[in-house]
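A quick aside before the break. I want you to see a complete sequence-to-structure record at least once, exactly as it would be stored in a machine-readable document. Don't worry about memorizing anything.
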Amino acid sequence: MSEYLSSEERQNNIVTLLSRQGRLSVADIVGQFGVSEATARRDLETLAEQGKLHRVHGGALSMKQAPPELPILQREQEQFFEKQSIGQTAAALVRDGETIFLGSGTTVLEVARNLRSRQNLTVITNSLPVMNTLSGLPGINLIALGGMLRPSEMSFIGHITEQALAEVRADKVFIGVHAISLENGLTNDYLPETMTDRAILKAGRQVIVVADHTKINAVATAFLAPIESINTFVTDENSPADFLDSLQQIGISIHVA
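That is the input. The structure line, written in tokens, reads:
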């Protein structure tokens, strides 16, 4: 079969087949297309570099497209127990006396809920739900960043927010993402928020991403940052082990809730 197909045509067929089956091994490709194992591996490496699949040992997984993100109030019940566990585990990484930044989203909001009893903690945030959760607490020094309100996320973004971010520094930044993969890094689905999120990443000495298993090996519209830009990844026990192993191999600390 391979003698009638160019490498580009064969690779397109591999992507189509992968989208149907979800997973392909090198042996599957050898048998399906009549090519050598070396050619099959080269095809997979090429497609992985193009962000069209997720390369794993012995084969590949399909690169799922992250669905559009629902408003924050509608997302609170999605993966509810996983987010609760992630919030508890991530909050345990915070020490009293630190300055932290909490971004927007339902998973980061769970981190905030687990910090309400802390003492001598400074929290910087652009998230209105986080502000409401932590306001008025005696042990929390709350710094709220303004800007243009994104109603669906109840967060402040844009030029004014980014200017304020340039004036603050945090020991740890906690941020959620819409999708995360080795090849495509951190991606979100709302382009106007990208520059604000990049400014958030620069505001902390340590970047901690909190995300449940549904966000892994997915890609969304707007590129935020490469995978190497994060220091710590906090997720739930349903996350694929090979993905977590790959993060550890590049020096990212893993915490499974």
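Two observations worth writing down. The radius of gyration is 20 Å. Residues 72-256 form a domain with the Rossmann fold fold (CATH 3.40.50.1360). We'll return to this after the break.
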